[in-house]
Amino acid sequence: MxxxxxxxxxxxxxxxxxxAYYSYKAVKxxxxxxxxxxxxxxxxxxxxxxxxxxxDQTVAWFPLYYELKIAFVIWLxxxxxxxxxxxxxxxxxxxxxxxxxxxxxxxxxxxxRGYETMVNxxxxxxxxxxxxxxxxxxxxxxxx
Length: 144
Prior knowledge:
Blueprint: H1 2-29, H2 32-58, H3 65-77, H4 83-143
C-alpha cells in the first residue's frame, strides 16, 4: 500500500507535473529542441499510461512492481538516459510511421461512427422524452 502511494505520487509529480511545466516553458520560449523533446516524452508517456492501466490490474502483485514503475518514470525523464527519446526513436516512431495510414483511416471511421451513434442516441432520447411527455399528459387528462 505504501509502495502504491509513493509510486502514484512520483508518477504524478515527476511523470506529469514536471514535464507539463517544462512543456509550457518550451512552448513559451519557442525552443524547438525542447518542444520536440517534450512532445516525444508525452507520446511515450501516453503509451506508458495505457500499459500501466492494464498492468496495475494484472501484475501489480509482482514483487517490486511499484518500485520498477518509479524507476521507469525517472529513466524516461532523465537527461542522461534520454529514455523517452530512445523509446520514441527506436520503437514508436517506426511503428507509427508504418501504421500511420491505417491509424488515420480508423480515426476517420471512428469519428463518423461516433457522430452517427450520437445522432441515434439523441434521436432515441428525444423519442423517449416525447413518449414520456405524451404519456404523462394523457394520464393527467384521464385523472381530471
